[in-house]
């Protein structure tokens, strides 16, 4: 799909891109050969951008995400999938002064977790292994929080599913989007960010390992589900193009989750704080 994309070229929007597709111009090579057909953009801009695009295919996803609207960055996914990480953080609240409690990082094969007071300082080095970060609302929350907390600049290309899912009419937070797309969380259904704070406090105050493992299970569920959502939205958008048969991705298998929620502690905390 990426090499069929033209709307990262300055001056080409959805309507022009669709017009080119309808006229049988469906690849960068084909557009280069007829670049004069888009006179209001100019052959020079088209040639320059597509030449740079071919070079960026090797290892520069940021070239594309910096030129595509937030709702269009799904287009880079298959090409850079092997360099993607799915990311979600848990915190003690929503303000800038809050702490990060746990982080889950998943690359489609391996789940890594980071815990405040244990190994949280290992996270920045591990993050550098990846070129693309997939989040839900990460542009507004997770990434700014990570940058403030670790005093680093996150330089990876970003795919924020919040904006992509909104284009499909899916809103209401990550869990609401999951429900609309048929993803069932099982025992973790109903657990949210506020309850995640409660779990962390229970662990911190009483060294309750069951509470910590339940929090990690929840954090991982958020993260692993990002891959499932990414594949789902990619397939839905590809089906809206003139070439759906060329791009559909299989639904990913579920990875081994190293932690399981403790139903007893969840019930006890709900009764305590309801």
From TrEMBL:
Q: Where are the transmembrane segments?
A: none
**What is the protein name for this chain?**
YprB ribonuclease H-like domain-containing protein
Q: Which InterPro entries match?
A: RNaseH-like_sf (IPR012337), RNaseH_sf (IPR036397), YprB_RNase_H-like_dom (IPR038720)
Molecular function (GO) terms listed? nucleic acid binding
Q: Where is the YprB ribonuclease H-like domain?
A: 85-233
Q: Which Pfam families match?
A: RNase_H_2
Superkingdom per UniProt: Bacteria
The signal peptide here is: none
């Amino acid at each position: 799909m990426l090499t069929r994309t033209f709307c990262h070229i300055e001056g080409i929007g959805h309507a022009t891109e669709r017009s080119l597709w309808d006229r049988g111009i469906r690849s960068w090579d084909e557009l280069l050969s007829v670049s004069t057909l888009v006179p209001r953009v100019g052959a020079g801009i088209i040639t320059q951008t597509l030449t740079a695009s071919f070079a960026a295919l090797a290892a520069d996803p940021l070239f594309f995400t910096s030129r595509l609207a937030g709702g269009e960055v799904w287009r880079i996914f298959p090409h850079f999938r092997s360099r993607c990480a799915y990311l979600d953080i848990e915190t003690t609240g929503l303000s800038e002064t809050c702490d990060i409690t746990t982080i889950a990082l998943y690359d489609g094969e391996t789940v890594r977790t980071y815990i405040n007071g244990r190994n949280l300082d290992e996270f920045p080095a591990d993050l550098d292994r990846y070129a693309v970060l997939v989040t839900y609302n990460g542009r507004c929350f997770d990434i700014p929080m990570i940058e403030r907390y670790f005093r680093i600049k996150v330089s990876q290309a970003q795919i924020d599913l919040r904006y992509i899912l909104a284009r499909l009419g899916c809103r209401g937070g990550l869990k609401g989007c999951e429900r609309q797309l048929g993803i069932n969380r099982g025992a973790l259904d109903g657990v949210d960010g506020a309850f995640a704070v409660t779990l962390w406090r229970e662990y911190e105050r009483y060294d309750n390992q069951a509470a910590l493992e339940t929090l990690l299970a929840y954090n991982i569920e958020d993260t692993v589900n990002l891959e499932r959502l990414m594949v789902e939205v990619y397939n839905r958008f590809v089906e809206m193009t003139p070439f759906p048969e060329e791009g559909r991705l299989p639904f990913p298998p579920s990875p081994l989750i190293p932690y399981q929620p403790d139903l007893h502690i969840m019930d006890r905390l709900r009764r305590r704080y309801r």
